[in-house]
# Entry
Amino acid sequence: MNWKRTLGVDNLSEEYRFAWDESTGFTSAKKIPDHWVPTTCGYCSVGCGIEIGVKDGHAIASRPFAAHPVNRGKLCPKGLSEHYTLESENRAQYPLLRHRGKLKRVSWDEALSVMAVRFRTTQKAYGPEALGVLSTGQLVTEEFYTLGKLVQLGFGTNNYDGNTTLCMASAVSGYKISFGSDGPPGAYEDMEIADVVLLIGANLADNHPILCQHLEANHHKTLIVADPRVSKTAMMADIHLPLKPRSDLALLNGIAHILIRYNLIDREYVEKHTVGFAELERFLDAYTPERVAELTGLRQETIFKTALLYGRAKAGFIGWTMGVNHSTIGAATVNAICNLALLTGHIGRAGASPFSITGQCNAMGTREAGFASSLPGYRKFDNAQDRADLAAIWGVDESRIPVKRGLAYPDIVEATVAKKIRALWIIATNPLVSYPNQDVLRHGLSNLDFLVVQDGYHPTPTTELADLVLPAAIWGEKEGTYTNSERRVSKVNQAVAPRGEARSDFDIFLALAEKLRCREELYPGWTTVEDAFNEWRRVSQGRLCDYSGISYALLAEHGAVQWPLTEGATPKGTSRLYADGQFQTPDGRAKLVCTDWAPFPEQPTAPYPFVLNTGRTVEHWHTRTKTREVPILERLSPRAWLEMNPRDAKKLGLRSHDSVDVVSRRGRVREVELRLTEITAPGQVFMPFHFAETNVNEVTQDAFDPISREPNYKQCAVRVERSGVNA
Ligand code: SF4
# Structure
């Protein structure tokens, strides 16, 4: 009993004291920080500037970093509450090693020694490629660079990929085929300048909310949104194209057909800067407006109107995200987008760009500096000169640089099923929620001899299966840089100490290198992340993604800046790639690519009559490991739901808020709340993918793009049943 309270001596005045804060006005005194630390948001690839309010060594507030060029004083709900992610209950704090079936706390020294020995033993027994690594888009660029060297040169395996393959690998592959290199050509500013903005499979209002202010700042644009759902972004559009699921490639080819037929193309640009026009023109003959109307379900007039608007625009912008990428023809669809930009010359100018909007806060960093689908600096595995350059910079024998990429994410999973990969290191990702067709993944992981999961959170469905859990520092607890979707490099700063014994991923990689006795060879004299950044600058020098002019001092002076920035250059305004019409191909010309539409792999049938679409909601982040611990976000969106058109519900005798099961050939998701809405068309249903408890990936299929290896998350055949009837 609190006697002071009982006697009325303590009236909790300290607890409830109010005070004045410059950003919020009168507020609880407990919520006024001692100081603010500028940094960059750790959720999505928009890359907003954010300040963390710190009081007595704890993060107690988040606010927009007003001077940051991306968000101009605004944050979305996730950014505004991001400080809650640091002190949540489920933070991983100590290394844990499985002993007699249970995870037990051990020292860092023991954890890393066991890891080094188990990985080495596995490689000795089954070959170096028996070790696989699955990374993330959540680390800082310096950590990706350090990790890539450790995996390739330290462990000697190239079976290394990231969860970025589940997200934007199709954009990467598409860019490489069309332009000769990865690298988004445009900038956010283009959305403010373009007179036509076409968004395909991109629900910015939920997934990249702060980008909507760039759209809203453009008062003269025509906004066209192609999406099977009437998403929040579609509701902002001047023209919504409610096309049939996965018919976007047919639509793009149909637009290209009309552009050529009505001479709305920039012939001079096509002649000077591209190859493949004659072949493309012939190929597109088959994509008549009549056929495209049938394939897409759109009216011919709407397709004509879209083509004419884009073709006649002074500056046309095409943005896309997962609606395009999450497909077995994702890379091909990206090529079709690039075709439109090249045919019309809508590229390399203010407002004119094909533009992939990426997913995670630093997916771009891993694309540039990682070792997964390219060598660092967008170098190519199969280019002898690229390999020789890298080997010379690092002072290692060329034979240690692989001549081809290792297994991509889904192929690493398949290799665990086939017992070719026997040890796996998973870093900052949660595949037990995010991977399609969970059954296959569970089978693969159960085959492993040793599974290490390095994460800022525990327990997660993935750490619970680990033989070793390494606790990592997260956003707010470490330093480095993120690069956002428009190639803007932004500083990430430490505001508070890591929880418990957690260490930054950078420290973990260096300590592990020490155990492998390769630290001095790989990281000579390195002690800080800035050492990694400075080497990365040298590695990127002269490449498309040239960071050589960017230093921590320059970022402190100028704020976030875009690459390329060559050594000694000063950042000036907004930059766009390919302004000179020179592409990263041997002859400098971009490629016009013939890409045929194909129906999605699993068509609805009588037992599985609905097409299931999956996606996100603004309140949550990916597998909800972070956001379920943020009270306001969790209260706003506490559970998954299934969207269904009221006409379909009527036929099934279902009503709003009924509890339903979603069933596919692969599995069943139980007890999902049904929501009836015209947002989703008849014959389709939609479900968010954030919720481990009702995981939609129990029913999604493991079909992958043959080029990018990205999963076809967006369409699979399901039926919907009232819960408890047939379960
Ligand atoms: S839009 Fe993205 S980067 Fe900006 S605050 Fe929201 S989650 Fe963070």
